[in-house]
Structure formats: C-alpha cells, structure tokens
Recover the amino acids of this structure.
C-alpha cells in the first residue's frame, strides 16, 4: 500500500541519502513476482522476513555438517507467521474483508492481531483456554484483538474458526488460507538466496503442518525456475506427545511442553507428508526432553527461541545420531519463534539471581573476579 503521508511505498527512503542505502521492504515487495499480488493489492506490511541465517559452530562440529540456523524469531511479532500474515491480511483487504478470525496456540494470533491493527480491521482470536503462553496472549491483546478462550484444544478451536468463517462475514487467516502458505514459502527463497544454493537438509518443527508444506512449495518453485539445481531433503519434527503424522492417526489429547505445536490433527497433514516423501526426507518425533535440551543449547549460542522452535535442532541431532546425515552436508534448521513470548522454561531452568549491596568489592567477590 502506498504510504499516505509520504506518497510512496513504505520503506523506500526519500531519495536514498547514502550510497547503497536499502531497507528490507517485507516479503511482498521483496518477492512480488513470486506471490499472488497485483499492482492493486494493498500491501499491509511490518517489513517481515529478511531474518538472520546464523552459522552454528557447535552444531557443525558435532554433526560434521555445515549447520545454519534460520532465526524466524526476528520477525516483527516474533515468529514466522508474519510471512504468511502479511499476504493473508493484504488479500483480505483487497477482497473487501472487514474482519479476520483465527484459532491459535499463540503465535498466529499475535501475528493476525498485529497485521489487522496495521490494516485497521477487526481481529478475533480463538485460543485453547489455559494452553497459550502469557507473552503470546499479551502480544495478541496489545494490538486490540478480541480474544475468546475456547473450552477445548487447538484442533477444536480451529474447527470453530472454520465454522465461523463459513457462516459469518469474517475471513479465516489460519494456514488453511492459501495465502498464508504462499507468504511462508519465502523462507525457502531467502535461504537459497543467502546460501547461493539450496541446503542438502532442511529441518523444521511441525504443528498444524503449514510451514513445512510452504517451505516445500518455495523450494519446488525455485527448482522449477532453475534457481536451484537440487531441492533439500525436508525433515519435519513433531513433539512425541503430539505426533499424529508419525503415529498415523489423530491424537485426541495431545501433550507437550512445546505448546505452539500441541496439535493432534494438523490441517495440512497431507501436504506435509507429500513434502517429506517427495523430498526424500521424513516426519519424525522428538521428546520433550530432547526439545528442552536443544532449546538450552541454541540459547547458549545466543539465540533465544521458544521450546517448539527447538524441535528442529532436536531433530537434527536425532538424524545425526541415527547416521542419516552425510558428512559435509549443508543443513538449515528453522527456529520458528522468539523465546521471550514463552519464557517459563528459561527461568525455571536457570540459577536464581543473588542479591547484592551496591558495593563493587562484594560484587567482584560474588563473580570470582
Ligand atoms: N513453531 C512455532 C513457534 C509455532 O508457533 C508453530 C505453529 C509451529 C512451529 C508449527 O508450525 O503449524 O505450520 O506446522 N503455531 C500455530 C499457531 C499453530 O497458532 O501459532 P505449523
């Protein structure tokens, strides 16, 4: 959308004062020719995407591979959902929608609320009562969304959201909305653009299974256009207490500390299986213990993620231990969301701070300096 004040696209600095000055414009402008938008599509953006791809020294050394971490927590609302939401909300506005709805384990709702606020439309969110991290509820509320807590789990909340969108004038912005996957596929483009090729192995957490499906879409499109020579193998990781795809049947009462992926009947089940099969990868499960261990490990490398995000790294280590990884492979693990929205596990696992007087000698003593 044209900036009403400056009369130009958001992010295009006036007359670029510095040589080479450039602001990342968000995924719609950066990948416009690969997305279902036209000149008349209003662009509702918070400049999402363009997230860091960080080389992990320790994971590379341990696995004998080149391991990169794609830090999706650096998106404006702290998760990869923003990539899909910019497009879903922009298209909803283009189609004349005045209200959007989603079910969520917390990140989708935070993202929907932020982009709806930017667009100036109503956002309603349905959250499984008592199962959403406090920071995600805060992020959803602060943008002015109408929050309803459902006496049921995520899967039941999603059925309710679908039902509403079928019978009332409100657009569904869960990942069953095709524009969500279209936007999220840009993570695969960014990875290839940064590496100059596709990775050999791509690891991603799986909940409702939209993200793995969208990444496969992205790699497939780059492959079809000759942008990459080979696609990666895609490996998706569910939490073992919420692993319907791995078990081959829906899980009625999914359980995991990784609340973002506490999902028993993923909407994009078939697409996720197709992505894993066609790429010669797989969908596997990791235990909560493995997730927490990976969570602490990436934190010790400077990246604060939420537990669900660490499922990709837990999965990578599992692949390594099983001897699945070829030495020297280029691997990308997607870290899907920021840790600040769900800090409980960071605090409970950490040493308690010591109280000190404002006295340098005492502080130095405590620090062993
Ligand atoms: N990681 C995080 C941090 C998530 O929030 C989600 C999904 C996933 C991974 C799984 O991605 O669903 O595309 O397979 N969160 C959704 C939500 C369900 O409501 O925020 P997926």
């Amino acid at each position: 959308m044209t900036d009403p004040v400056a009369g130009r696209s958001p992010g295009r600095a006036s007359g670029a004062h510095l040589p080479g000055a450039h602001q990342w414009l968000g995924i719609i402008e950066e990948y416009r020719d690969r997305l279902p938008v036209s000149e008349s599509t209003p662009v509702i953006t918070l400049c999402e995407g363009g997230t860091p791809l960080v080389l992990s020294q320790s994971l590379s050394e341990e696995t004998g591979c080149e391991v990169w971490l794609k830090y999706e927590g650096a998106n404006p609302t702290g998760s990869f959902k923003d990539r899909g939401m910019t497009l879903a909300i922009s298209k909803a506005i283009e189609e004349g929608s005045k209200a959007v709805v989603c079910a969520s384990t917390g990140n989708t709702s935070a993202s929907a609320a932020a982009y709806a606020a930017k667009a100036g439309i109503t956002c309603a969110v349905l959250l499984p009562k008592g199962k959403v991290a406090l920071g995600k509820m805060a992020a959803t509320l602060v943008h002015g969304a109408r929050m309803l807590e459902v006496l049921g789990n995520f899967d039941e909340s999603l059925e309710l959201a679908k039902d509403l969108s079928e019978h009332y004038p409100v657009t569904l912005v869960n990942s069953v909305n095709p524009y969500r996957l279209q936007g999220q596929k840009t993570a695969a483009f960014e990875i290839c653009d940064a590496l100059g090729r596709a990775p050999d192995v791509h690891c991603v957490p799986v909940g409702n299974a939209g993200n793995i499906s969208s990444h496969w879409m992205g790699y497939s499109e780059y492959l079809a256009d000759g942008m990459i020579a080979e696609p990666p193998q895609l490996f998706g990781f569910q939490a073992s207490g919420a692993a319907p795809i791995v078990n081959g049947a829906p899980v009625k009462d999914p359980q995991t500390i990784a609340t973002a992926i506490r999902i028993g009947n993923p909407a994009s089940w078939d697409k996720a299986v197709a992505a894993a099969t066609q790429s010669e990868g797989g969908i596997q499960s990791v235990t909560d213990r493995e997730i927490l261990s990976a969570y602490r490990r990436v934190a010790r490398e400077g990246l604060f993620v939420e537990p669900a995000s660490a499922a990709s790294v837990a999965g990578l280590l599992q692949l390594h231990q099983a001897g699945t990884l070829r030495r020297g492979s280029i691997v990308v693990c997607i870290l899907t969301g920021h840790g600040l929205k769900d800090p409980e596990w960071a605090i409970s696992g950490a040493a308690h701070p010591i109280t000190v007087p404002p006295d340098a000698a005492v502080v130095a003593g405590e620090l062993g300096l």
Notes: Residues 1-11 have pLDDT under 50 and may be disordered.
